[in-house]
Amino acid sequence: MLHSSNNKDERKKKLKVKAIKVENEWNETIKSGLNKESVFHIVGLESELEAEKLRMVREQVEVLSLKYNFPTKNDVANIARLLIQIEEKIDRLEEQFDEGLATTGQTQAQQLSMGKNMVKVIMEDMAERHAIVSILPGQDEKIVRSMASDQDE
């Protein structure tokens, strides 16, 4: 019984060694087959064909996006760039505004009186053609739009 387990272990070791040799032979065969210039030429041609297919698909997507009015990847990228530019401009304007207030040395009362000229639209009712605006909090007025101002837009 002891003899049979040694025999099994010995057969497993021999099988393992043989499997490693066969694997190494296959690896060498695959490497030598792939390292030929003809393989690179074929792969290059295939990649050119795939690139042409991708270009055609992109063109079809562009045509469909115009027809069905949906954004393409480029449209989304352009919008993202524009948003970043807008955020940067807003940041610069805020810095300029803060610097302007700091350099003028205005008191808070002067800043409030300057703010009286600024009008804020609180609500707009398109059906009744008027907007509720506020010069100061609590002092609301209704402004009715004329037909001429709507036609200008």
Structural key phrases:
153 residues, alpha+beta, 3-stranded antiparallel sheet
How helix-rich are the residues, as a percent range?
over 70%
User: Would you report the number of β strands?
Assistant: 3
**Radius of gyration from CA coordinates:** 38 Å
Averaged pLDDT, please?
Answer: 77
Give a quick account of the main beta sheet: strands, pairing sense, barrel closure.
Answer: 3 strands, antiparallel
Distance between the termini: 100 Å
User: Which of globular, elongated, flat, extended, rod-shaped describes the shape?
Assistant: elongated
Count of helical segments? 5
Which class of secondary structure composition applies to the elements?
Answer: alpha+beta
SSE order: HHHHEEEH
Low-confidence stretches: 148-153
Strand content: 5-15%
Biggest sheet, spatial arrangement of strands: 1-2-3
Task: Give a structural overview.
This protein has 153 residues and is an alpha+beta fold. 73% of the residues lie in helices and 12% in strands. It has five helices and three strands, in the order ααααβββα. The chain has helices at residues 2-34, 37-68, 73-104, 108-115, 147-152, and strands at 120-125, 130-136, 139-144. It has a three-stranded antiparallel beta sheet, with no helix packed on it. A hairpin with a 2-residue loop joins strand 2 and strand 3 (139-144). The protein is elongated and about 100 Å long.
Q: In terms of topology, how is this protein built?
A:
Blueprint: H1 2-34, H2 37-68, H3 73-104, H4 108-115, E1 120-125, E2 130-136, E3 139-144, H5 147-152
Antiparallel strand pairs: 1-2, 2-3
